[in-house]
């Protein structure tokens, strides 16, 4: 059935916990939606107060409410359905203590109470009203009262000695019934608890169908819900969500509700060696569309029909050889396809003279099987989720990690609570800031974490999303913004510094020329001032060197402030590399051995001086990364080749100190340098020149192993003979002719 109508909101009580109940609630909602023909969205209320507020404001169609809420809203609702437990639409509350430390009403004074929540009927309201009526008001009786949120947590508080008294609901005021409910919450530890008092009965909690639901939908839903215990319902196993066997209208809940007879095929049989029915029983006297009330003494196939009897006969024969077996099979029953689960067990009699028999049990699982697809889809979510998902205890102990998490974080088990992802998740849970999305950088990847709290048992569920690409893009955008701002500033500064530098260099040059002439005259006369003049000349020479250095920096700033002018001249790169090597030969001689590998490469479009500047900057950077004392072992390798894509590739590799990933990420930023004597502009200027020509400049480095700088430039387009002779403006050339 296609569910296209507006969804129904189904709001659950917060005491239902987190994991098992969530899956059951989701399946219960989906099964109801299938019968109703409308989608049902299941939500867990964060508190009883929020649930009551949603009811009061009529913002929800279906609510699992407490007994008090059912009573309070009954007059305003379309319908109220009370839960049926052990044939009753009401229940009791049992007061519990540790079996090793028994209590009675008369010995309660001074003890500590563990309650579920202020709006919980069985876990607080009912027992406290009972105590007050018996002359033991809680405020005067207990020295401490605490709320734990769920029945399980309240019971555990008593078991662990944090409290002495707790309360739990029960369908009947007797110990065996209470123990059945205790076992659902604390398992085998139920033996360590004992009930010592029972309250009076109260109408049961249940489902509230609000006035937001139409009368037609209400009638359908009431019919489905009130017939669960006696229908062929695949929903019946899901009623464990409410510890209930069905529902009854509130108006009918005051009388004992008779248990409905199951209509689902359920068959029990005992067969002899010839597969004759020694005994055969079903609740209705029918099975597989046949009347089986007179089946004793008849062969199984005759009693059940060839198809059903044949399948069960094969299972029984197998059980006689192996001791037991189980099978699921499909049959056509009265024109409808049904699924059945059957089990067979060999029963060996105590009397050796008697023959062994085979016990067979059969159950119709058609509708339960229909829910399996949804169950498996829900259960497989963590396994198939493409991103890492973890569940942690409050102390960071790993309870679960899906395959994606183990693949992304291979050291989860060794590091445990010390893993950065776990530490960040715990820190985020402690902050509990709205909208806080913690991030972790681990092994070169950026992870964004979504942390949610699990209620019962306590813990954290963590989803990790790989945002490395996004972070890289953000860094590039940030860098581009900074470069744009720096470029504007650099252009303005370069322009303002240009003229003063020109005056400075001109005047220093004039002063040096004049003082040189004066110094020569004084030396020829052996004048005492000749030495002083020489000192002044030396100072002016140093000033000139500084001014020229400033001029170079200003030129670099101007390069950053604007893209290099477009060049249409094609350039052969190999001669430029050889020229650049000649310019750094003094530095090269003292630091490293040179290796070259120049293969045939395409020409590129660019400016010879600009490209030479790039290669010189990269070579000097490589040489300065290698220490002079180790010159005999240092190697500078310069190579050029053609990439498979046809682009020119120039590689400059050194065997120097190398760089950390953090340094590599910043080396093309203006003014970033690891050397005190460096301006930090060489590599950034080179990057601007290369990218301005449509190429790329990248760095790969490992600490202690050296660095590889790679320049990739697009090959120049081949020109026609006309373009080679007249350039790339044929129209103007033709006009010139």
Task: Describe how the helices and strands are arranged.
Layout: E1 8-12, H1 20-36, E2 40-44, H2 48-56, E3 62-65, H3 67-73, E4 79-84, E5 90-98, E6 112-115, H4 121-133, H5 138-141, E7 144-147, H6 151-159, E8 165-170, H7 175-186, E9 193-198, E10 202-203, E11 206-209, H8 215-226, E12 246-249, E13 266-271, E14 277-281, E15 286-287, E16 290-291, H9 300-304, H10 306-322, E17 324-333, E18 336-347, E19 357-364, H11 366-384, E20 389-392, E21 398-401, H12 403-408, H13 412-415, H14 420-431, E22 439-442, E23 445-454, E24 459-466, H15 468-524, H16 530-561, E25 570-571, H17 573-583, H18 585-591, E26 593-598, E27 604-605, H19 608-624, E28 635-642, E29 648-654, H20 661-664, H21 682-692, E30 696-702, E31 706-713, H22 721-726, H23 730-736
Parallel strand pairs: 1-2, 1-3, 6-7, 6-8, 26-28
Antiparallel strand pairs: 3-11, 4-11, 4-12, 5-8, 5-9, 5-10, 13-14, 13-19, 15-16, 17-18, 18-19, 20-21, 20-24, 22-23, 23-24, 25-27, 28-29, 29-31, 30-31
Helix pairs in contact: 1-11, 15-16, 16-21, 17-19, 19-21
């Amino acid at each position: 059935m296609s569910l296209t109508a507006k969804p129904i909101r189904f709001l659950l009580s917060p005491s239902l916990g987190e994991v098992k109940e969530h899956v059951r609630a989701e399946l219960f909602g989906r099964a109801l939606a299938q019968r109703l023909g409308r989608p049902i969205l299941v939500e867990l209320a964060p508190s009883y107060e929020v649930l009551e507020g949603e009811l009061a404001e009529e913002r929800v169609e279906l609510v699992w409410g407490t007994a008090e809420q059912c009573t309070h809203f009954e007059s305003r609702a379309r319908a109220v359905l009370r839960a049926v437990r052990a044939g009753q639409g009401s229940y009791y509350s049992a007061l519990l203590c540790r079996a090793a430390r028994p209590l009675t009403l008369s010995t309660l004074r001074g003890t500590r109470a563990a309650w579920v929540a202020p709006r919980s009927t069985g876990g607080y309201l009912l027992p406290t009203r009972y105590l007050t009526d018996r002359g033991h008001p809680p405020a005067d009786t207990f020295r401490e009262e605490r709320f734990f949120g769920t029945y399980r947590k309240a019971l555990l508080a008593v078991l662990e000695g944090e409290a002495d008294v707790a309360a739990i609901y029960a369908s009947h005021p007797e110990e065996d019934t209470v123990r059945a409910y205790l076992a659902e919450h604390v398992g085998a530890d139920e033996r360590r608890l004992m009930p010592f008092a029972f309250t009076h009965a109260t109408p049961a909690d249940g489902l509230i169908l609000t006035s937001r639901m139409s009368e037609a939908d209400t009638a359908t839903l009431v019919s489905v819900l009130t017939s669960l215990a006696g229908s062929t319902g695949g929903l019946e196993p899901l009623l464990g969500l409410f510890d209930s066997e069905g529902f009854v209208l509130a108006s009918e809940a005051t009388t004992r509700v008779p248990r409905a007879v199951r209509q689902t095929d359920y068959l029990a049989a005992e067969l002899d060696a010839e597969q004759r029915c020694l005994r055969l029983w079903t609740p209705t006297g029918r099975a597989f569309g046949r009347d089986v009330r007179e089946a004793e003494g008849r062969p199984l196939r005759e009693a059940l029909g060839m198809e059903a009897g044949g399948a069960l006969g094969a299972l029984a024969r197998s059980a006689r050889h192996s001791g037991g077996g189980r099978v699921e099979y499909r049959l056509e029953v009265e024109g409808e396809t049904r699924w059945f689960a059957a089990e067979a067990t060999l029963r060996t009699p105590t009397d050796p003279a008697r023959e062994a028999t085979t016990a067979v049990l059969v159950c119709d699982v058609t509708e339960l099987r229909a829910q399996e697809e949804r169950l498996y889809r829900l259960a497989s979510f963590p396994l198939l989720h493409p991103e890492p998902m973890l569940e942690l205890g409050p102390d960071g102990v790993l309870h679960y990690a899906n395959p994606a998490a183990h693949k992304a974080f291979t050291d989860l088990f060794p590091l445990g609570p010390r893993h950065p992802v776990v530490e960040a998740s715990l820190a985020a849970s402690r902050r509990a800031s709205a909208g806080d999305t913690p991030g972790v950088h681990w092994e070169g990847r950026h992870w964004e974490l979504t942390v949610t709290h699990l209620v019962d048992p306590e813990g954290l569920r963590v989803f990790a999303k790989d945002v490395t690409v996004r972070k890289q893009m953000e860094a590039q955008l940030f860098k581009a913004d900074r470069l744009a701002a720096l470029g504007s500033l650099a252009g303005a500064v370069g322009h303002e510094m240009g003229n003063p530098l020109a005056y400075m260099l001109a005047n220093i040059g004039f002063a040096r020329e004049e003082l040189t002439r004066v110094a020569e005259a004084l030396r020829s006369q052996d004048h005492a001032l000749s030495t002083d003049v020489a000192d002044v000349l030396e100072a002016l020479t140093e000033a000139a060197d500084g001014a020229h250095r400033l001029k170079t920096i200003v030129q670099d700033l101007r390069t950053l402030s604007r893209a290099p002018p477009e060049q249409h001249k094609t350039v052969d790169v190999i001669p430029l590399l050889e020229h650049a090597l000649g310019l750094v030969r003094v530095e090269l001689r003292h630091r490293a051995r040179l290796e070259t590998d120049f293969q045939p490469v395409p020409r590129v479009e660019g400016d010879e001086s600009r490209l030479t500047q790039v290669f010189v900057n990269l070579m000097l950077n490589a040489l300065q990364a290698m220490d002079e004392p180790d010159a005999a072992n240092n190697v500078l390798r310069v190579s050029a080749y053609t990439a498979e894509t046809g682009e020119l590739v120039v590689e400059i590799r050194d065997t120097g100190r190398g760089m950390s990933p953090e340094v590599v990420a910043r080396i093309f930023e203006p003014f970033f340098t690891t050397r005190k004597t460096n301006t930090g502009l060489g590599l950034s200027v080179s990057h601007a020149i290369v990218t301005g020509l449509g190429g790329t400049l990248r760095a790969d480095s490992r600490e202690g192993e050296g660095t590889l700088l790679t320049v990739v430039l697009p090959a120049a387009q081949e020109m026609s003979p006309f373009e080679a002779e007249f350039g790339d403006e044929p129209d103007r050339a033709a006009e010139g002719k």
